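Internal ticket #5521
Category: modeling
Description: The requester needs a full-assembly model to guide mutagenesis choices. All entity lines are attached below as received. Residue total reported by intake: 969.
Assigned to: D.W.
Attached entities:
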Amino acid sequence: MAEESYLTDDFLRQLMNVGEVDILVGLPTHNNAKTVGSIVHTIQSGILRGFPRERAVIINADGGSRDGTPELVTGVSIDDVRPASNLQALRTLHSISTKYASSPRSASGAFRTILAAAELLRPKACVVMSPESANIQPEWLSKLLRPIFDEGFDLVTPIYRRHKFQGLLITNLLYPMTRALYGLRIREAYSPEFGFSGRLGSQFLGQNVWNDETEGAGVELRFTLAAITGKYRICQSFLGDKDRIERPAIDLVPALRQTAGALFSALEPDFPVWSVVTGSQPATATGSDQEVLLKALRVNRKRLREMFLAGIAELESVFQSILSPSTLAELQSMAHLGEEEFRYPAELWVRTVYEFAASYQKSVISRDHIIQALAPLFRGRMFTFLTENRNVSAGDVEKNIEDLCLEFERLKPYLLQLWKTRE
Amino acid sequence: MPLNRDVLWYKDAIIYQVHVRAFHDSNGDGIGDFQGLEGKLDYLEELGINAIWLMPFFPSPLRDDGYDIADYNAVHSSYGTLEDFRKFLGSAHDRGIRVIIELVSNHTSDQHPWFQESRSSQDNPRRDWYVWSDTDTRYKGVRIIFLDTETSNWAWDPISKSFYWHRFFSHQPDLNYDNPAVREQMWNVMKFWLEMGVDAFRLDAVPYLVEREGTNCENLPETHDVLKELRRKLDEHFPGRMLLAEANQWPADLRPYFGDGDEFHMAFHFPLMPRMFMGLKLEDRKPITEILQQTPEIPPSCQWSLFLRNHDELTLEMVTDMERDYMYDMYAGSKTMRLNLGIRRRLAPLLDNDRRRIELMNGMLMSLPGTPIIYYGDEIGMGDNINLGDRNGVRTPMQWNGGGNGGFSTAALERLYAHLIEDPVYGYPAVNVLRQKASEHSLLNWMQSIVAVRKSTAVFGRGSIEFLYPANHRILAYVRRLGNEVVLVVNNLSSTAQAVELDLRRYKGNILIEMFGKNIFPRVGDLPYLLTMGPYQFYWFRLRLI
């Protein structure tokens, strides 16, 4: 039976009216009324400044907001932008909105809708923008789109200037592991803002990632990985400051599903690629190098350690299914260390992650339980990272991240060994 | 066909712009003349136009193609005699064709006897007929129009050892309209031609008649006073005659030239023209609807004059810098195509000789509110010669047939005032009247049919306009209405097929009748009216409640 279309008739009618475009800006939203208005303004400014002659459309894929977000997106007028900025629109700038199928089983609906729109409107370059970035700048559009438009790149991932304690999941897991496995140093392989070519979008839309057991979690990461494995041209573009978005600790598990879960689930289909990669190469980058910000930031490290200890105590049977005895023993012995002595060493952390990845493939227990079990351990690693980098320079923070990356690369044979024993 | 007596005749007119020099040479001297033009009136009548606008044909040193007049009350000897003109005028009127001539009122040639007298001494009675100054610092900051050739609006006169004011070329000194004698003399010039039977004047460069310190010397109240005085005299002595303003200004600045219906009858809508080209290239109606939204209402007796191309460059003065850059990049890739702030090209080459685009642009020209002007040769898709200097590349001889000199003249090639277009695409062997007359689907025959359809209703010349804004921005749609007569115009600005849904609920129950083929389209119902349109296609529908 043919798969049911996930685009509504009304959305198709809107796309028909827009017609072929040069630039497509995707804006996934869900109850973002507080920020989305100013973000659309900024996007429009970015289009007028960077691409005044190109045909452009803003596609808002909304997950069923109840705060008027879609109306805000479509209601923002180009004329609101023009007087203040002395900008001029040569042509019609469209903003259209659609509600994507939003259920717990379709976390990727927004991105899929944006890709489908791109498939129909055939843009030369697309960009996805976050509805939450408090400090988005009009220049971001050019920075993410120009390499595609002018230089033929297929994927442009951002580099942000972050606080040294922001994005720990990226610096401690996603970046080093992606780099070690796929051989390309992409700092933000999973980002709320990125640019891509129409051909990459089209190729990915046809991949079987939308209805698999990950339920689309972290599909943007899968997108980056697809670009790497498909040998598309990738570059990184420095955007500047990334304001820290406060998230309660409870958000860690969903975040792990979208990052570690998505990465682990990609390893099996991508095995022919990553299994033969050794070392890593820098990715092309435009703009300044990233650097971390060092301003004081209050973080409750004590709570992180407590959650680690609780996890070790409560999830022992789960860990026995996932981890090797030696790794588990080391973790359990760590639990006896006082706060001052507590350290989660890089080598142990890498082994932990690789064993989780292999277990994920073996499906020793429910894959979602595996991801949930990683959460307390990651908190332990966070505690260590925060401690080790509390009073060091920006250069030292970068060096510590680099050391961790090298550890992931060094221990990659261990992951391959685990993979083989799986068979 | 006698002339109709309607004093608002210009609202229903379709004007054909021609330079007598370029149309047809009757005496074999290589230069077009009035006898030649008269001999081609049948052609123009067949085309369907009902007014001719003649470019300057007065005695002149021809340093600006006749816009440098040396005698207002005579005909340049190359073009014939006053008697020839009179005869041409009578023949045109016999065919129901009115004649509009130029009144270059702002300036004369420096060879005009008035200027020769004026410069001869400070005490000459005509000294004050021009704008003189001991310094070149007066009216500082006033823009220079011919940027490519002039560096100042003042020129030094070595004879009278002072500076004279000129807004255009330095050989075109501006008349001094603060002098009542000048105003009176200009009215005498008008009277001379009006008494002969001329129907209208195109007043050249009207914003610049009067100068005042501390202003930009454009559109000044004193200029309007001068023009109103001329209009009052015209209405008093020659009712039913018409004044057409050439004022290359923004719509809001143009509006005062209509006054309360007591200044100009018509004015060119300069800002619209480049935006039609822009809309076509962008495949977006925005530039067109935007400028028409900014166009103010004009008195009921007044009318806009619309054109696609004319004898000048495609002027880009009334666009923003960004729009100008875009137009240059899209329509004038080679720098030799650019002149002053514009593009010196004809319609067909501008549109890559794409018949569909040429038809669409003419369709809009004929259906937007105003009186359309067709530039000679554009009805057959003539090309241009960008290797000729100034604007001469768009002023080459009319191409009548594929024979010697394109049927324009029997003179030897070297005696022609300008060479004909000879390239393989636009040259006279390929593009000429004779050939197109013989081909049922030629551009000429198509132009003839659209002119006929335009003339079949007064709604295009006199009706109101209401824009529809379908969600598909590539579609420019509007409703023209005059009394009970309603016409729907739908233009696809895109190079690809488009579907469009039009909200026609207020016309529910009407049947759409396509005006060219007279075919019936489905009745308007409650649902949006769906049309599918081919690339650059346009429809004119008459709405009938039957």
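Resolution: model delivered.
Comment from assignee: Chain A touches chain B through 16 residues (CB under 8 Å).
Ticket closed.
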